[in-house]
Design a protein that fits this description.
By secondary structure, the chain is of the alpha/beta class. Strands 1-2-3-4-5-6-7-8 form an eight-stranded parallel β-barrel, surrounded by five helices. Bound molecules: 1,3-dihydroxyacetonephosphate. 1,3-dihydroxyacetonephosphate binds next to strand 8. It catalyses: D-glyceraldehyde 3-phosphate = dihydroxyacetone phosphate.
Length: about 240
């Protein structure tokens, strides 16, 4: 199974900036062992699909839970597929917190993605409260169970402890593995042997200098990266660190 380096730009870069970034990456990337995917604002996806180097996937940061119709402002899975989208992040902690997304909504979005041939990257992870109480495993597994309701095995799970996102506080590689192995066990109960093929990512302050140690853990199959995804040199550094 190929390590996945998923780059979550969040609400950054205009379509023109996305195009320039993709062209810069195309000039400088020497393919490594990891699969790269860029999760960009939806409006930048056509520019990325046209200008990213071959083999780098295009991903969305969200999608509608609905198929089509009277849902003003929403973007459907079919629209994303039409512009070449391969992955979609669902249930990022920022959407759960600022847009009130429940586990049920996240699961509905993941099902919608799968029905249209997009692989959902389902995000889970505890906040500081649960971590300080030592309840990170049960908290995260409960969130995972709700977020995978009716979701098939063509899925990626991203463990992103909220306290490590954008804070510079990275979970240790052992913290990441603790949750990744608990998630793997839950996936085995849900999908049987197919769980071994589901990629489990870690996210939260991942950078060129810590990615290799985290991704070397047996149940960690890649990273979901925010801040360090915005600059091409950092992405090249992470790609090289995974060779
Ligand atoms: O939320 C994240 C990726 O989805 C992590 O963000 P940072 O890498 O900026 O901590």
């Amino acid at each position: 199974m190929k390590t996945l380096l998923a780059l979550n730009w969040k609400m950054n870069k205009t379509p023109s900036e996305a195009r320039a970034w993709a062209e810069d990456l195309a000039e400088r990337l020497s393919p490594g062992d990891a699969e790269l995917a860029v999760m960009a604002p939806a409006i930048a996806l056509p520019a990325l699909a046209a200008h990213l180097p071959a083999g780098v996937s295009v991903g969305a940061q969200d999608l509608s839970a609905h198929e089509s119709g009277a849902y003003t402002g929403e973007i459907s899975a079919a629209m994303l597929v039409d512009v070449g989208t391969r992955y979609a992040v669902v249930g990022h902690s920022e959407r759960r917190e600022y847009h009130g997304e429940s586990d049920a909504t996240v699961a509905a979005k993941a099902r919608q993605a799968q029905q249209n041939g997009i692989t959902p990257i389902v995000c889970v992870g505890e906040g500081l409260d649960a971590r300080e109480r030592g309840e990170q495993v049960p908290y995260t597994l409960a969130q995972l169970a709700g977020s995978l309701e009716g979701v098939g095995e063509d899925v990626v799970v991203a463990y992103e402890p909220v306290w490590a996102i954008g804070t510079g506080k990275t979970a240790t590689a052992d913290d990441a593995e603790e949750l990744a192995s608990a998630i793997r066990e839950a996936l085995r109960e849900r999908y049987g042997d197919a769980a071994e093929e589901v990629r489990v990512l870690y996210g939260g302050s991942v950078k060129p200098d810590n990615i290799a140690a985290i991704c070397a853990k047996p149940n960690v199959n890649g990273a979901l990266v925010g801040g360090a995804s915005l600059k091409v040199p950092d992405v090249l550094g992470m790609n090289d660190a995974l060779k």
